[in-house]
Specification:
alpha/beta; Rossmann fold; seven-stranded parallel β-sheet; five-stranded parallel β-sheet; 29% helix; elongated
Amino acid sequence: MSTLVYVEHRRDELCNGPLGVLAKAADLDDDVAAVIIGGPEVKALTPEVGRFGATTVYVAEEDSLFPPLPQPRVDVLAKIVGEGGYDTVLFSNSVLAADIAGGLAARLGAGLNWDLVDIITRDGDLIGKRPALSDSVLVDVGWRSTPRLALCRAGSFQSVERGTQPSVQPVSVELESHSRAARIVDQVTQPEGGPSLEAAEVIVTGGMGLGGPEKLSLAEDLASVLGGVVGATRAVVYAGWSPHSAQIGQTGKTVSPRLYVALGVSGAVQHKVGMQNSETIVAINKDPRAPIFEFCDLAVVGDVHSIVPQLVELLRRRKGS
């Protein structure tokens, strides 16, 4: 298997989702290539790509590639795949990546599987794991031919540094005439006003078991002392206690932090699918039959209103000592 991973960036920062996909690809194959495409900013980002498992980094740098448009990136990727003979191309889902993956599939006449939450090899074949039936089960999906294209659900894989020193391969940018027909004339970033969940290493999520919007302060205090951010369940968001930008789950964001703490969260399947890939899951709930206890690493049966303040105070004392 020869794998190429598209690594997306936003200005001078690599996106966390593609780095997780790159780390997953490196688990499956010792020799994995990555590609980063953009303007002059990509030079400084190239060494960082190597730290996450890429043995080869293709760098396509041209002023016309910033701001980012999908079609020029399809041109660059099609050239790399053709000249490098790559049989697998992986993406982490985003608005831009979805456009690129679809365009590349059409250009190459290739099969594209999307919304994958895991990728494995079985008897030499690449198998994708895709949620179905409201994310209650995982089904196996495959490809009939190569190159195989996969669009992975953002946040499904943890980014793991490997310290690799990659071989850097500059790519000459040759764009089709129609790829220059569209241009971005302005960009306006509207902040969501919520936490950056996808990149967080520690997330403390509040559920309806907190009892009211004012009790989200428990999650905020614990997140503050742990150096994390605050998430919310769908029910909490729908109740108006928290903005949608904090929602984790099937209709929210998928995260994979090193530590996930659930306060008063029942653990319904719609929420589970958004956080089940967390490295360590701690749940505090007074209901001993809460579904979240079936898949958490540490289960604490008790009242969050009593336990969390004591935990926060203990952590503050330890940090101060």
